[in-house]
Amino acid sequence: MITTLLKNYLKNFSQFSVEVKVLAITTFINRIGAMVVPFLSKYMMEQLHFTYGQIGWVMVFFGVGSFIGTWISGKLSDKIGFYKVMVFSLFTSGLIFILLQFLTTFYSFCFGVLLLTTVSDMYRPAMLVSLDTYATKNERTKALSLIRSSVNLGFMFGPLIGGIIITVLDYTFLFYIDGLTCILSILLFAIYVKEKKLPFKLNSFKYLKEGNSILQDKPFLIHLVVTLITGILFFQMFTTLSLYYKEVFNFTSVESGLFLALNGVLILLFELSIVSYVESKNINKLLMVSYGVLAMAVSYLFLLIEHSIFALIAMMVFMTIGIMLTFPFANSFVKNRSLKKREGKFMAAFTMSYSVAHILSTKTGMTIVTDYGYKVNWVFLTCLGFVGFLLAYRLVFIVTKESETIKKKIVNSLFTTTAK
Fold it and tell me: Which residues of the chain have pLDDT under 70?
């Protein structure tokens, strides 16, 4: 079965343009070097001796920087182009990663993390916009899934290698590796991929309302709320869950890395095939998003079973299913909805919802764990996930009705034009 899945993956990979392939390889190199982030909470606790409260605040600055970076990226991508933003972001963040290890006080580390995520998170919205140029319209969801597979392939090896480096060597080496791989990946991209302008984009949503904007787009705003909830559920994997592994199961860094690697392996093997199947059968993508949020909500229920390795595995499997169903199709919805010459702003707003999720997820998670314990946190996340599922499921019907309205207005406009 694995051989068949691998053949399908390589078959799908071969269909893309050279630029998309290089972007995927660049992303893989970048993410395999991203060893610091999964162990950031452990690093602050074990090396810097920060309290839970201080760790929570550092992660708040992590999210704030991400929010600022994505906002800036949206502005700059529309003005100077995604290419320059991508090159600046990865090269500069590589240098900052190397310097971050020298900041050891609470306030200096908060500033360093804020600066790091502001610069590094300028990359993602610009990269998402680049797919409009380097992939055809019919390939964009698959291309996005390919990029995500590269991310997860990197995460599959990154945390495992990072755990080994921490055990055998020292945390210091992680900062150097992360920084150098950022620089290496963007140099590879700059050498093999040339800058192009976005192609002309015909957008049917103009028939809904003249001067349509993000704040006037009700379905898009609901989608942002669903994305926010999805992000809160997702980011706890790297904060409270990583500490849960250590405190409740006494996992080593290598063992924690193996569980994160399981997530990457499953996504690498199945996501691209799932996306291809949904695309070929023309299945409602927002319906897939709603099922994905439901799977993520259910995943945290397994953690209520104490001291069970099987419960941890089941949790990670359900979480991964949720990720595979929500992330690629949520991105696809935003890309299809974004207006001509405003792709950067739409993708930035979408990505900023993840930044806000990071802020809320970390601080609320740490606070709940400190005051009430892990079980209450898992119950809270499950309930929040069910709210997200209901919103996402409702959005399916809203967008379906909207599509019918668009078709009617297009037909009416054609008859009006003919009459003239």
Answer: 1-16, 30-38, 78, 136-141, 152-153, 155-160, 162, 166, 196-214, 253-254, 257, 338-345, 348, 403-420
Helix axes 253-281, 2-14, angle to 10 degrees: 60
Helix axes 171-192 and 82-100, enclosed angle (nearest 10): 160
pLDDT of residue 393: 92
Longest alpha-carbon distance in the chain: 77
How far is 348 from 75, CA to CA, in rounded Å?
8
129/346 Cα distance (integer angstroms): 10
Q: Name the 3-class secondary structure at 175.
A: helix
Count other Cβ atoms within 10 Å, centred on residue 11: 11
Rounded distance between C-alpha atoms, residue 184 and residue 132, angstroms: 24
Q: Where are the domains of the chain?
A: 17-195+202-419
Q: Are 359 and 60 in contact (CB under 8 A)?
A: yes
- The number of C-alpha atoms within 13 Å of 266 and in the hemisphere containing its C-beta is 19
Nearest Cα residue to 333 out of 397, 269, 396:
396
Distances (CA, A) of 340 to 198, 199, 206: 9, 9, 10
Q: Name residue 242's amino acid.
A: S
CA-to-CA separations, 213 to 150, 218, 275, 346, 385, in angstroms, rounded: 32, 10, 29, 9, 28
Rounded Cα gap, residues 78 and 58, in angstroms: 31
Using CA atoms, how far apart are residues 161 and 165, in angstroms rounded to an integer? Answer: 6
Which H or E element spans position 227?
Answer: helix 218-235
Give, in degrees to the nearest 5, the angle at Cα 134 between 131 and 139: 70
Nearest CA-CA partner of 354 in 35, 66, 53: 66
Q: Which pLDDT does position 203 carry in this prediction?
A: 47
Which pLDDT value is given to residue 297? 94
Query: For position 292, what pLDDT does the model report?
Result: 92
Contact present, 323 and 267 (Cβ < 8 Å) = yes
Our measurement of the distance from residue 27's CA atom to the centroid of its chain's CA atoms, rounded to an integer in Å, reads 13
- Is CATH 3.30.70.260 the classification given to domain 17-195+202-419? no
> Measured in whole angstroms, how far is the alpha carbon of residue 131 from the centre of its chain?
15
- Cα 44 to Cα 15, 220, 301, distances in angstroms: 43, 37, 28
With a CB cutoff of 8 Å and minimum separation 6, the contacts of 410 are 204, 207
